[in-house]
Design brief:
By secondary structure, the chain is an alpha/beta fold. Helix content is 44%, strand content 14%. It has 2 domains: 173 residues, Rossmann fold (3-Layer(aba) Sandwich); 124 residues, CBS-domain (Roll), CATH 3.10.580. It is built from 16 helices and 10 strands.
Amino acid sequence: MGSLSPETISSSSKTLTLIDQNELLNLFKSQQKYLNFFFQNLDLSQTLTFTQTLLNAKGTIYFTGIGKSGFVAQKISQTLVSLGIRSGFLSPVDALHGDIGILSRSDLLVLFSKSGNTEELLKLVPCAKAKGVFLISVTSIEGNLLEGVCDLNVHLPLERELCPYNLAPVTSTAIQMVFGDTVAIALMGARNLSKDEYGANHPAGRIGKSLIFKVKDVMKKQEELPVCREGDLIMDQLVELTSKGCGCLLVIDDAHHLIGTFTDGDLRRTLKASGEGIFKLSVGQMCNRNPRTIGPDAMAVEAMEKMESPPSPVQFLPVIDHENVVIGIITLHGLVSAGL
């Protein structure tokens, strides 16, 4: 248990005030205004030169920064890596204690700093220059020291911080992030990165799975399939309907061609409408003879979209080949379990 007594918690909670909805809305509107100032005043010529320089890089593109700008620099570097671009983050403090050894003459070093006067970055500059690295500053305060010592400079227009004291770096870091990520997507387009190549860089995440996994990779097949014939009585197929965990029966002929589907929902509706007459009804009499289906080579994410499409969502799709032969079934539960 924590060290605070119930009385302390109770008394401290009384000092809390509610967030004013109008004040919150005004903050978002102000942030939007400051971001619009950035978009309206960004020098596209500088930005184009910066982007082209990154695209033409022969070596690795390193990013650096201190504090919040450092976090942004690290994130942008990781974005480039995910696009297959050689990139890395170099801590300016660690660089001065040995990590600068990773830099080579063919590399670029992008220095993110709101003020452009960050002491740690200014100390790093001559050391990086000695390695022959091309230096680029990305700053928001004009006339700063980094502009005078770097090979290329990009100015990110900043009207002011959202902070009421114009101190906390919240608008400036948002601008840095928007700038860096937009440039990253420009590089993605210029390099003609395909969807498959992008997916290959994200094999373990949902992004990669949605781009790599096909229906045949996640479908149930063979003994797992809940199959029956259209002449089978409904009541004789209850075990098959419930034991395979699909919530349905796949109605097939002797050659395994798909005739239709019969779901647990169909069972409930039939029981309600027919009462004891259900004991004499066959699956073929009550099945859906026009179900949604999918092929084995379709993307798994396409199967999910098809399940969720109008007029109403379904929990499964029979998987058929080009001759309408049932070869599997894919379920919504199976897609979720696969991380999709």
